[in-house]
Specification:
This protein has 20 helices and two strands. The chain is mostly helical. The chain has a two-stranded antiparallel sheet.
């Protein structure tokens, strides 16, 4: 019985070897279509799982060749007007790379003498030769730009993992020793660009650690555009990495702070969280000195003064911010809330002085809430103002 089982196993193995040979013969046809390549891969797949054939570099090299052939033929068919599934075609190219990688791992044959003994090098290690590696590396390098294009196609299809993988292959191979030896190494500026987009793919897939890693790689390769800093800060915020947020924001503020006050705001929040009020004040004062008509900076200054001193001293900054930018919702609320807080702190809350402050506060808070209905703080203050002023709008706001 055991003999029959062993015989059956040998027959199965031989059958899979014949499958490999049959697929090789099919690919020698003069005009293999994309559909033909797909059929060839389906025919070969059992050999990729069979114990005899799955350990041979030839099997995996053939699978990679089929996938790359499918991609090439699909591009030809697209060029003559045929519709292709760019997502499926791109994934086939990635699969081909994976098959080729497996082939490279298996592609080492020990050299032997006539008597069968293994030849060794000067260190006593077996000498090996490769059969498929050179052709595989050459084929991959020829398709380098295709991987960058596939990344874009997959990103547009919201296949975040696929886009990330395509750009990882591109970036890795673009600066490999093989590319360098053949003088086809891509410059840092190009690779940095794609590392950035690789990070975007990871961010969209909510893989924030991977995103932050790729943004840092892009930065180190010289990609320092504003979108890089914004995305890098966003990923660090998602990770709760306040030290990284602060480090990136400092550099971003030096480069783009004059045109975008968000970095100053981020840094001030970092300093306030650390209770480093001296750094926060110094940063903001320098920003205002540089751009005294910036409503964002003045609003931030008002918030800082209100926290460190009192509401009364913050009012001039809020008023100036609202004068410069009448529809600045946050500054409008801060001004109205500051006036409301002053009224609350008057000992006789029903006095004429308190009522005057309530009335002055009301239009600012109303406008802030109208501009930003999601501001729950504005809704709460508005409800209190309507109550204390006896407004018939109280029922409406409380609903």
């Amino acid at each position: 019985m055991l003999g029959l089982l062993l015989a059956g196993s040998r027959i199965c193995a031989t059958a899979q070897s014949k499958v490999v040979e049959g697929v090789k013969k099919d690919l020698n046809g003069l005009a293999v279509t994309a559909k033909g390549y797909k059929s060839a891969l389906d025919k070969l797949k059992p050999a990729l799982a069979n114990d005899e054939t799955k350990g041979k570099a030839e099997t995996w090299a053939l699978a990679g060749k089929i996938c790359f052939g499918y991609y090439d033929r699909s591009m030809v068919e697209k060029s003559i007007g045929s519709n292709i599934d760019k997502t499926a075609v791109g994934k086939m190219l990635i699969s081909g790379y994976d098959y080729f990688t497996q082939a490279l791992n298996l592609d080492s044959v020990k050299l032997t003498r006539k008597d069968g003994s293994v030849m060794t090098d000067r260190n006593g290690q077996p000498r090996v030769r490769t059969r498929y590696s050179a052709g595989i590396r050459k084929r991959v390098l020829e398709h380098l730009i295709d991987f960058s294009a596939v990344g874009g196609d997959l990103l547009m299809a919201s296949d975040w993992d696929g886009a990330y993988r395509a750009w990882e292959i591109y970036c890795t191979e673009a600066q490999s020793d093989y590319a360098k030896r053949h003088r086809k190494q891509e410059p840092d500026s190009i690779v940095g660009y794609y590392r950035y987009y690789q990070g975007l793919a990871a961010f969209q897939g909510k893989k924030y650690a991977d995103a932050a890693m790729q943004f840092e790689r892009a930065h180190n390769l010289g990609y320092i555009k504003k979108d890089l800093y914004d995305s890098w800060i966003a990923s660090a915020l998602q990770l709760g990495d306040s030290a990284k947020v602060q480090k990136v924001a400092i550099e971003a503020n030096e480069v783009y702070g004059a045109s975008d006050p968000q970095y100053t705001r981020i840094l001030i929040n970092c300093y306030l969280n650390e209770k480093n009020y001296t750094a926060a004040t110094s940063l903001l004062d320098n920003a205002i000195k540089r751009d005294s008509a910036n409503a964002e900076y003045l609003d931030l200054k008002g918030q800082l003064v209100e926290r460190l001193e009192d509401a009364g001293k913050a009012l001039p900054y809020y008023r100036r911010a609202v004068t410069l930018q009448p529809d600045f919702a946050r500054a409008l609320f801060n001004l109205g809330n500051c006036l409301y807080t002053q009224a609350v702190h008057i000992s006789d809350r029903r006095s004429d002085a308190a009522t005057a402050l309530y009335r002055e506060s009301l239009p600012y808070v109303e406008k802030a809430y109208k501009l930003d209905p999601k501001n729950t703080d504005a809704r709460k203050v508005l409800s209190r103002l309507y109550y204390v002023l006896g407004s018939n709008k109280l029922d409406e706001i409380e609903k």
